Amino acid sequence: MSNTTEGSTTAGSTAEASSTEGSYVNPGGEFTRDQRYIATRITADGRDGYPVEPGRYRLVVSRACPWANRVAIVRRLLGLEDVLSMGIAGPTHDARSWTFDLDPGGRDPVLGIERLQEAFFARFRGYERGITVPAIVDVPTGQVVTNDFAQITLDLSTQWRAYHRPGAPDLYPEALRGEIDEVNGVVFADVNNGVYRCGFAGSQRAYEKAYRRLFDRLDWLSARLEGQRYLVGDTITEADVRLFTTLVRFDAVYHGHFKCNRQKLAEQPVLWAYARDLFGTPGFGDTIDFDHIKRHYYEVHRDINPTGVVPLGPDLRNWLEPHGREALGGRPFGDGTPPPPPRADETVPAGHTPLAD
Q: Which CATH class is domain 174-356?
């Protein structure tokens, strides 16, 4: 998620140096995501010069960002908290970068920097693409290693396996990878990115095309999930993580702010029950900060929401209502176990989530 949310548009500069009052909508029509990320990988064999090492790296996220949220969930499920530390940026940003305004003195306590931009510039002087979260930073050098969000979660599952907690689930089982990749591909194109194609469309035609594509895919997902508890197989996988982080933001942001308003998630029975099932699963709902989510979208996208007013709703208590998905069977963690509660310094504040009420 960049300082223009998750990728530069054709309306923005390649440096994504928009201010919080900048332009996100593409006046030419369709929203186009810049997917040029730093492809360096952290691997068990260190093939790119960055071997997996406990304590060496710091994951930087924002709780507002769905792409960063994926990594926070996977890290929790796999039990990597003591191996890969996590810094949390604030929910909004300025023209240059995400900032660590949640930390004392406005500096990340491990990296010692005020802006994530500093880690990007430490490795690539004058870096001209988006300063995005999630990002993993090499602590000894202070240099960013990667911001390739799609690869980061897969590598946490496959390359960091030696440091998974006892009972960690297999989120990317080898026998199901082909199907997981296929589902992830269409969900990214039509749903994860589809909500942005609606929200940042600059013409009626572009918006309507994106809107239909989004809801056609949501209908497809509803049909798929009507008779099975999870997207692929009978346990939680990477595919569920990727869909969940969009669904959990749907009613709070995408339905109104991005005009994805055929129905609320709460009016789509299968997907609503599926999302609540995951929300109540340890490692999912306990990473969700609805206050940060709403503040980011409504305060930052001033060309969509010029006043910057953040809505008080929706009522979040319905996230805790019974979902009944257990009747479909399935084992959330397979042969594994749930993760323990979040660490005190990573717990979502009371009032930002219905889990704390």
A: mainly alpha
Strand partners, 58: 85, 137
Selecting among 37, 50, 57, 65, the annotated active-site residue is 65
pTM: 0.94
CA dihedral over 331, 44, 59, 165, signed as positive or negative: positive
**In percent, how much of the chain has pLDDT > 70?**
93
pLDDT greater than 50 at residue 11: no
In our burial notation (b when 16+ CB lie closer than 10 A, e otherwise), range 10-42 reads ebbeebbbbeeebbbbbeebbbbbbeebbebbb
* Strands, E assignment, 81-210: 85-89, 135-138, 143-146
Cα–Cα distances in Å, from 159 out to 10, 79, 156, 177, 335? 35, 14, 6, 15, 20
What is the DSSP pairing of strand 85-89 with strand 135-138? unpaired
- Collapsed DSSP state (helix, strand, coil) of residue 57: strand
Residue 260 is a catalytic residue: no
Helix, coil or strand: residue 138:
strand
Q: How many CA atoms are closer than 13 Å to the CA of 119, on its beta-carbon side?
A: 37
- DSSP 8-class letter at 309: P
Known catalytic residue: 198? no
Count of Cβ atoms closer than 10 Å to residue 114 Cβ:
17
Listed residue (189, 4, 159, 10) closest to 80, CA to CA: 159
What contacts 334, CB < 8 A, 6 or more positions away?
Answer: 169, 170, 235
111 pLDDT higher than 50:
yes
Please give the structure tokens belonging to residue 44: 């068990």
Give me the catalytic one of 196, 211, 297, 298: 196
221-228: average pLDDT: 98
Q: Look at 1-5, 63-67, 217-221, 345-349 and tell me which has the smallest mean pLDDT.
A: 1-5
Q: Where do the structural domains in the chain lie, given as residue ranges?
A: 174-356
Instruction: Look at residue 10 and tell me whether its pLDDT is greater than 80.
Output: no
For residue 43, the SS3 value is strand
**pLDDT above 70 for 15:** no
Pick from 314, 315, 294: which is nearest to 305 by CA? 294
